Amino acid sequence: MQIYKTIAETREALAGEALKNKIGFVPTMGALHKGHLSLVERCHSESDLTVVSIYVNPTQFGPQEDLNHYPRNLEKDIDLLRNYHVDIVFTPDDVQMYPEGYCTWVQVEGLSDILCGASRPGHFRGVATIVLKLMHIVNPKLMFMGMKDYQQIIVLEKMIEDLNLETKIVRCPIVREPDGLAMSSRNSYLTPDERQRATCLIKALKNAQKMVNEGHLDSSILISEAENIIKQSDGRIDYIKIVDGSTLQELPEVRSGSRMMLAVYIGNTRLIDNIELLP
Ligand code: PAF
């Protein structure tokens, strides 16, 4: 496993590889957990070369958000990755990615302004910009991303389509704790009491899925039941929406491909999750 801190070294190591080998890429912000590691395993099984990036991208955090507190442990992350079949780890710093005078941004309009984008203005501009930059450095055929960040995948797929890029995103299933909480680096912020209450997200989603299976398709009823479950655990709702799984447009009634998407604060920690309501 080679570890590179600079764009130049990474480019040199990968020079010509995209022509001979299928490069698979897992972009991360570190603080690796089993969710990330499942992406790395999947990447290895479907690619000839596995590249992982670890970079906490400052431009996807708002001014009041947790950039300064975001968990960072590069050495531990690298040790973990040594147990997997990783060929290259790219760990740039801010000077590499955003040198002085940097002023170019990628904006996927519309999709970036709804759901998480409505509460986190500029978030998806930062995500699209850094992912495009990383893609240009790594040149992957496949990019492996977890469906917990479902909107992120939809935004990036639109960017790929609109900019005629050749990378395909492989959507990977959400990895959950035994009690159903979606794995996330931000779970480490939760106190023991909050950690217990955080299971209300998956309870609300599963309840909605069960109601749909029983024939309840009215979005407003499903959303209000989900709200009740979240409020019973003292969760503060950012949003709960039922959307079309491809366009993310809100739907008054559940139909094939609909998803329930939610963002909820448990204490000061903002958690997201989602589920397909009808295949
Ligand atoms: O999902 C993440 O961890 C980040 O948004 C990503 C894709 C690595 C970009 O910084």
From TrEMBL:
Its EC number is 6.3.2.1. It is an enzyme of class 6 (ligase). Keywords: Ligase. It comes from the Bacteria. This is Pantoate--beta-alanine ligase. It comes from Candidatus Syntrophosphaera thermopropionivorans.
